[in-house]
């Protein structure tokens, strides 16, 4: 190669060695090769490929699982009927709607009764008292509501039962049951002193009975 590089090349009226032609060409070729190699992107390592794939799916894996939809208190059918005007419903639909609402009320009062029976102090909550007294006014829910009042603590439970019994001049199944409950063997002992006197006076049949029932100073 060195001998060839020293060979003279005739051109343009002067002698030029072959090396003067080949060396610049070789330099240019090496430069182009280096440029091509630098532009070529190396193949990512296996570990890099795995990391890239994992990062692409990471948002999907870390996305929170949607919470289950809470079950509605009424069926879609009842909700649909409740949203319509009553005069647009048939007799069958009106009865179905009334039965559905009655079922809801029975479920609600049974839940409240179980809550008071498990923790009698719950009855001290004014909102609970209001709910139970509301349920007493419905023949479908009165028994469970009165049972919850009977389970209440002393002297609140007996006082509320007495209020249901004497709070109206109208005699109903609810007032009769309230009277029976307030005199029951496990509710009457929880009555306050004042209520105990009132209960005795209610059943007194003679002057002597009244005298015994009246508080002494």
Description:
By secondary structure, the protein is mainly alpha-helical. The chain has eleven helices and two strands. Strands 1-2 form a two-stranded antiparallel sheet. A hairpin with a 2-residue loop joins strand 1 and strand 2. Helix 6 (126-136) packs across helix 7 and helix 7 (142-150) runs parallel beside helix 9 (173-182). The radius of gyration is 48 Å and the shape is elongated. It starts with a helix and ends with a helix. Residues 1-7 and 44-73 have low confidence and may be disordered.
Explain briefly what this protein structure is.
Helices cover 63% and strands 4% of the residues.
Task: Give the secondary structure arrangement, pairings included.
Layout: H1 2-6, E1 8-11, E2 14-17, H2 19-39, H3 46-62, H4 76-82, H5 91-118, H6 126-136, H7 142-150, H8 156-166, H9 173-182, H10 193-203, H11 207-213
Antiparallel strand pairs: 1-2
Helix pairs in contact: 5-7, 6-7, 7-8, 7-9, 8-9
Radius of gyration: 48 Å
| Structure summary, number of beta strands | 2
The number of helices is 11
Structural class computed from helices and strand pairing: mainly alpha
Question: Main traits of this protein?
Answer:
217 residues, mainly alpha, elongated
């Amino acid at each position: 190669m060195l001998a060839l590089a020293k060979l003279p090349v005739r051109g343009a009226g002067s002698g030029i060695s072959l090396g003067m032609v080949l060396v610049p060409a070789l330099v240019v070729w090496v430069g182009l090769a280096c440029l091509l190699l630098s532009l070529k992107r190396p193949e990512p390592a296996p570990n890099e490929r795995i990391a890239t794939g994992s990062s692409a799916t990471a948002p999907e894996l870390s996305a929170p699982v949607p919470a289950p939809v809470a079950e509605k208190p009424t069926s879609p059918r009842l909700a649909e009927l409740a949203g319509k005007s009553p005069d647009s419903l048939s007799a069958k639909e009106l009865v179905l709607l009334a039965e559905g609402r009655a079922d809801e009320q029975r479920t609600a009062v049974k839940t409240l009764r179980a809550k008071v029976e498990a923790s009698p102090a719950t009855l001290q909550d004014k909102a609970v008292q209001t709910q139970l007294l509301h349920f007493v006014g419905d023949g479908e829910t009165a028994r469970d509501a009165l049972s919850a009042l009977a389970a209440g603590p002393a002297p609140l439970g007996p006082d509320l039962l007495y209020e249901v019994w004497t709070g109206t001049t109208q005699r109903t199944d609810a007032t009769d049951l309230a009277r029976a409950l307030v005199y029951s063997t496990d509710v009457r002992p929880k009555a306050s002193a004042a209520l105990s006197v009132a209960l005795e006076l209610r059943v007194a049949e003679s002057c002597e009975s009244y005298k015994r029932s009246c508080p002494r100073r």
